[in-house]
Design goal:
mainly alpha, Tetracycline Repressor, domain 2, single chain
């Protein structure tokens, strides 16, 4: 008879997610994951099959915690310019507050795992694609209603804003200076004119 799992899987995934954010996939050893989760090696392997399995669960949890809420906010119907500004400013504030400079798991996965891991690549493309779609809808509706000018293609602007979001995360991990990051935000917002 198989033993039942004796640990909180969700808590273990979140602890592993933090470990991967601090050290990346390659830099995080199985022992690091054991230490972070407080779960024995055998139990982790029993639940997730491998380090890769736990990483995929961590990426999925990160998407649930960070990407999905952002997409829901975009679908909420607030005025486009104010909504996009609020999202960008909130991101800058989050970056500046994060004293540990944890990496965005989407950014680190894109650079570290996407080139050679099809499962991670699918998840990251799906996440950034959903964000781009939501931004495209917001921008297109705002252009149709006259809230934003229609001089630029809504899809192109959405791609640019996704790039800006990810770029802010990268630059914020290098130098979390609010003034510098906000200057980039203001330039990005000017592209909506």
């Amino acid at each position: 008879m198989a033993r039942s799992r004796e640990f909180d899987t969700e808590a273990a995934v979140e602890a592993a997610m933090s470990a991967f954010r601090r050290k990346g996939y390659e830099g995080t050893s199985v022992q690091d994951l054991v230490d972070a989760t407080g779960v024995g090696r055998g139990s982790l392997y029993g639940a997730f099959k491998s380090k890769d399995g736990l990483y995929l669960a961590a990426v999925d949890r990160y998407r649930e915690l960070y990407a999905q809420p952002l997409i829901e906010i975009l679908r909420g119907g607030a005025p486009a310019r104010e909504l996009i500004r609020e999202i960008l400013v909130d991101l800058v504030d989050e970056i500046v507050r994060d004293g540990s400079r944890q990496a965005c798991l989407i950014v680190s996965a894109a650079t570290e795992r996407v080139p050679h891991d099809p499962q991670v690549a699918r998840r990251i493309r799906s996440t950034t694609g959903s964000l781009e779609d939501a931004l495209t809808d917001v921008i297109a509706e705002a252009q149709e209603s006259g809230q934003l000018t229609g001089t630029r293609d809504a899809r192109d602007l959405a791609r640019f804003l996704v790039t800006t979001l990810q770029g802010l995360r990268v630059m914020g991990s290098i130098n979390p200076d609010r003034r510098s990051l906000m200057s980039a935000v203001e330039v990005a917002l000017s592209c909506l004119d």
